Amino acid sequence: MRQIKNTFANAAGTTAAIALAIVVLMAVSLTGCDNLVNDLTPTDVTIAVIKGVTAPVTGAAPVMKITETDQYSGTIVWSPAVSGAFAAKTEYTATITLRAKSGFTLQGVTADFFTVEGATATNAAGSGIVTAVFPHTGGTTDSPAAIDIAAIGGITAPVIGGIPVTVITETAQYTGTIVWSPADDAFKASTIYTATITLTAKTGFTLTGVGANFFTVKDATATNPVNSGVVTAVFPSTDAKAVSSIVITTQPIKTTYNIGETLSTTGMVVTATYSDSTTEAVTGYTTSGFDSATEGQKTVTVTYESKTATFTVTVNAAAGDAFTSIADFATWLAAQPANTTSDAFTVKLNVSDLGGSADTSGSAGAALKTNNTKYINLDLSGSTFTSFAIQAFWDCTGLTSVTIPDSRKIALNNSGKV
Predict the structure, then answer these.
(1) pLDDT of 367 over the 70 cut
(2) Is the peptide bond before 56 cis (omega within 30 degrees of 0)?
(3) What is the pLDDT at residue 320?
(4) Cystine design at 168: which of 52, 103, 176, 177 (Cβ 3.0–4.6 Å)?
């Protein structure tokens, strides 16, 4: 009896294990199915241009298949039916049936998604049935067909700086050349341009039968006489020119300043470049960034019509209210950068003796002569000397002026050498 119970217990355990294994296998199988479904979900067709469908030409044989892509293949049925070759003066329609390849679908295709060169193509949403209507075929030399392609392609509306095109986009029925008025090398601002287009019919076609104002040009008002391929296309005015950049073509005369001096833009030339590639010197600009309260190099920003350019100036260390020592004056002068007469330093020197001639070591003249690339307006109005040496400032070429109070003026020597 005990043996029978053990047998049933073992059987029950085995059955439970088998059931658990089946559940696990089902779960794994279901997960695998989900992955399989995801792997098999097709991708929408994205290639819109159908290639390999050539426009009908009188006497030419029709193609019956498109150029196959990675996403689809396709066959073509012509209407009216073609027996060997396209007939003259006939409008043909190609009905193209596309077949999506494995992994792709036409379900997501939008209405009129597909295009066929040289034809007006349409298709329903979610469909690979494409209807392509072509212009009629040409006639013969003796009996040409009237041109019926109205839209002239290849001409874009003039924009500032653009280069005028001289030929249209050739069609199956005609070619064409363009002459622009005004005849600018590049389109200018605020200008109304007119394109005179001369169309030439291809063999098997004629302009006879073309109605007045039959042809069209995108973004233009186009006119043509009856039976004529001379088309006048008037475009709207180009935009007014705008400043595209500015540059400082000539630096200001004064580029070195003393503490407390104001900015001078005398001599500076600012040149603007416009959107039509023209340039001109401009005024009316503003400046910012100049600060002479502290010494150092300063960047000055010039702004004109929201465009900017920069130049740099140097502000020198302050010389103090006045130098009372020639040695201090000489030390300060030696530390200054070279400058020009237009931005000469103005320095006060209050001493009782100038120290002799410019060739005397330690004299004021010697300090100036040693630093002849530093231009100085020397103010001696606070000095107390009653005389100074002949040639005190001889050969001091950087000395632009000397101020001496009336009570201290001394007559120059006969040679004029001070």
Answers:
(1) yes
(2) no
(3) 57
(4) 176
